[in-house]
Design brief:
The protein is mainly beta and 244 residues long. It has 2 helices and 16 strands. It has one domain. β5 (76-85) and β6 (88-99) form a beta hairpin.
Length: 244
Amino acid sequence: MKRLISGLAAAAVAGLALLPAGTLASSSGHRCFHMSAPYRSYATARGCASGYVRVALQAGTHQLVTVTNWRRTRTYARFNGFTLTAGRWAHRWGPWTARIGASGFAAPGKKIEGDALTPQGSYGFRFMFGVNGNPGTHFSWRHAYRYDYWDDDPASARYNLWTDARRHYPGKNPEPMHNVPAYNYAAVIGYNLARVPGAGSAIFLHVGDGRATAGCVSLPQADLLKIIRWLRPNAVPVITMAVL
């Protein structure tokens, strides 16, 4: 989500976001991952030790990316990637610096439309897209044309959906998908799949321009390309965004 709505409008939809949106429904358990070398991890049924992030893994998950910081209002985050091979989790990517929402992380389950906060939690990926051509991803790819938008209007029937404006009304003030350089390449994070009105929409992993986002996660383009080429649907990848 790149655009912000006014504080008054955000407050107006706050009452609609009564339930956490988009939490993985088919979690196979939780695991704690350390966010710095030597990047140890362990299974858990409760919380994690200091310096670890708690991840909700899906059945079959073999790829994980984490986006973490130590203060909820901080707009910079640490990005790491992990892979499961022969039953052992190993660090694969990072640590890199990512940007998140201009107001930092939302409190768990408290994300609302237009608040400039990145949601916390563990989510899957839906598909990938970009203004440019497919750079070699394994997920399904959508080209972003000038008539493509993301409906981020809580009052719209197509809230939190990619929308071809030639065929459907994309809601009031929709998010343009033909957006350079942010959407040169991007991955759609499976947040708010139930499309709870006002709980937040258009949460992507996309190309960064050096600034904080409106709720997404961004990386420099070279780093982002490494990640979206690496992620594979059959590895059931998960992204966890959280305050340690």
